[in-house]
Amino acid sequence: MAGIRDVARLAGVAPSTVSLVLNNKGYVSLDTRRKVEKAVKDLSYMPSTIARNLSLNRTNIIGVIVPEVLHPFYSELVHELEQALYLRGYKMLLCSSSNKEKAEVLFVDMLKTHTMDGIIVGTHSMDLSIYEGIDRPIVAFDRIINDRIPVVHADHVQGGELAAKAMLHQDCHHIVQVIGAQNVRCPANEYHIAFEKKIREAGCMIDTIEMERNVFSPEAFYRVMSEVFERYPDVDGIFGADLIICAALAAAQEHGKRIPEDVKAVAYDGTYVTRLSPFAITAAVQPLQELAGIAADTISRMIMGEAPGSIPVPKLTLQKGATC
Amino acid sequence: MAGIRDVARLAGVAPSTVSLVLNNKGYVSLDTRRKVEKAVKDLSYMPSTIARNLSLNRTNIIGVIVPEVLHPFYSELVHELEQALYLRGYKMLLCSSSNKEKAEVLFVDMLKTHTMDGIIVGTHSMDLSIYEGIDRPIVAFDRIINDRIPVVHADHVQGGELAAKAMLHQDCHHIVQVIGAQNVRCPANEYHIAFEKKIREAGCMIDTIEMERNVFSPEAFYRVMSEVFERYPDVDGIFGADLIICAALAAAQEHGKRIPEDVKAVAYDGTYVTRLSPFAITAAVQPLQELAGIAADTISRMIMGEAPGSIPVPKLTLQKGATC
DNA sequence: GTGAAAGCGCTAACAG
DNA sequence: CTGTTAGCGCTTTCAC
């Protein structure tokens, strides 16, 4: 394996000059630049990223940790983050924390040991003490960790109201919403509050069902929705995250309810599962691409040693589908 | 930031001794071990992975490149790979090649520059010349690159036959199968051949529709399925990858066909989308967890300098659902 | 413009 | 069992 010294020797220059050429830095005469480039090509030289990392004390790797890549929302988030990071010159190290005890702790340790330059945290672990006193770049995605860690999230108040308006236009009278675990602090918990408020203001009845933390299986969702239809026979509106609504569609059919004739359904998030059938599910869509860009910009800034700056809070949009 | 020398000084030993303690290598007296551990704790010392990497010329990072993380099949693959690699002490650097010109080339370059110790390739780019003459660990997932790169894949002949048997049991007469692009060499292309053979042997009519490469959108699938129902009004069996079958379910409804009464449907892959509704889609399920383990074992062996060895070819299983 | 030399923070022989 | 020494392969001052 040829090294920078071999290239230097062949080109008849010093290693430092080769380095300058490779990194387009400083002033190098066209002539020596040519010589170096030829030597690089002749030796099919490939610089060692590992050595470079040590010199710069930087890896250009950002860690991304999510609860579960399989979940469409996180699939989409990971997809967008990878693209956003790529555009900014970073590579993405991915960790899916489900099935892994201590995944988040290990990940933060990897940040401390400089395996990555920064991390974007999308998990909801309960122990926030691991984030105390860390002076390395961390960005939280839709999760409040502590007051030193910037949070990237959409405008969930607006999102909740958007969904509420969509349902109220359809003249619902008894709405049931299914929400995530409320024992984790995250901006996304705001949307059902805003939703409920708007619904009540319109004089409409609303019941709320809370799911457990980190429960994502279709079976669990279906069970919950079945219960909903049994417990509230007069329900005519369902609101919840994408997969909940998918389950609602299935459960409704089982319980002899037609959607949207008997029951309206609005999904929150609007990932691709709401578009799997030709008749899209009506949904409040999170601007994941934009959010990923904001997260990438923020972590990038922190790595450069700058302050995170103010974080934009983008709005959701309504996807008009066939379910409401 | 404390370094290994600081720890050594505080503990009153040499840096090499500290290294031995940290890595549980060689023989260190209990006494000095204690001293070192205390010093480590007192300084909250975190060893630099970057420096370690240079010394060892190894990063413990495996690159994984797939066409599209959003696609359920690849979500699931990525999920399983990450877990399998994690269990073997590796971290996963993920690249989704869609929307990225030259992603595969860049990825292979990163392998050459030692950003990763090895890569697992699941993409289907057309230019295989970039893999010529590389002496670093590469494993292909369901894709034939060249005769030096080991391929991990399920037994698609058995899988195709499994699906065929399922349909023949239901007494189909005119089956349409939708398949991926055939201009890429991959073991998965075998399944529709095996399927077709079995179906023809049973004296059943079969038509085949080929999709373009890297087309994964629900809309595209739906369009294709709509055409199928229009062109073949007597079709009573549909076979294709998961998302095709999802689209088939939707399109069937539109065209007044009931599933499974009028048309049977069998999916190939059997990812979680086939289980999104309580009535699962009948499917030939790829053992992705097992495949991921095989891929991880193989790349691991190659990194250790061993030969890839023989690659097991696991079988698919039938998920009995409500569609056939 | 270019080269010499000093690291970056670890690991690994090899003495002792 | 522990310390000394020499790298790993780059980048980066700082003279020339």
What is shown here, in short?
Two copies of one chain form a homodimer. The first copy, chain A, has helices at residues 4-11, 15-22, 30-42, 49-56, 72-87, 103-112, 156-168, 190-201, 218-231, 242-254, 288-303, and strands spanning 61-66, 91-96, 118-121, 138-141, 151-152, 174-179, 205-210, 237-241, 264-269, 283-285, 317-319. Chain A has 324 residues and is an alpha/beta fold.
Mean pLDDT of chain A: 94
Order of helices and strands of chain A: HHHHEHEHEEEHEHEHEHEEHE
Rg of chain A (C-alpha, Å): 25 Å
Instruction: Give the CA-based shape of chain A.
Output: elongated
Number of strands of chain A: 11
Instruction: Using the coordinates shown, work out and report the CATH topology of the largest domain in chain A.
Output: Rossmann fold
Our count of helices of chain A gives: 11
Oligomeric state of shown chains: homodimer
Can you summarize the main beta sheet of chain A? 6 strands, mixed
